[in-house]
Design a protein that fits this description.
By secondary structure, the chain is an alpha+beta fold. The chain contains four helices and eight strands, in the order E-E-E-E-E-H-H-E-H-H-E-E. A hairpin with a 5-residue loop joins strand 3 and strand 4. The protein is elongated.
């Protein structure tokens, strides 16, 4: 990977011997001879390490936050939101926990999204539960009670 493309506070996959691991770049220093040195934190063991060779960096690992930020920037070509983004917008506007069927109805009525399936509420419910499971505390949704979701 090109040393100029490596940024602080981003997560990268690097080689350590024959193995690979993920690290978060904490600091980038330029030495007297002009060489860049990367101060990193291993995300699995929380140990610090210094990487002097940028060729050890294989690729950037997208975290949930960066994926959300990219999604928010790009948007959709037709100007509509995804079902999940529309559900989040509805929950933020209502400022109360709601059932998924009600969320889907409001999102479709307000024209936030276009869900063509036979059961849009099940599609949105599955997507919200998947985000809660995968993103954990970084999720935009939280289960308030059984069958009720709220915006974080």
């Amino acid at each position: 990977m090109n040393a100029k493309r490596i940024e602080t506070n981003k997560v990268y996959e690097i080689t350590v011997g024959k193995n690979t691991t993920t690290v978060r770049v904490i600091n980038i220093e330029r030495r007297v001879n002009g060489q860049l040195v990367f101060d990193c934190l291993n995300t699995k063991t929380n140990k610090r390490l210094t990487v002097a060779d940028p060729k050890r960096f294989l690729k950037e690992i997208k975290t949930a936050k960066t994926v959300k930020a990219e999604r928010a920037k790009s948007g959709r070509a037709d100007g509509l939101l995804s079902g999940l983004d529309a559900a989040h917008k509805v929950l933020r506007e209502s400022q109360r926990p709601m059932r998924v069927k009600e969320i889907a109805e409001i999102a479709l009525q307000n024209g936030y999204c276009k869900l063509n399936g036979a059961t849009p509420e099940f599609t949105i419910s599955a997507a919200m539960q998947r985000e809660i499971k995968n993103a954990g505390n970084e999720s935009r949704f939280v289960k308030a009670q059984r069958g009720l979701f709220a915006a974080r």
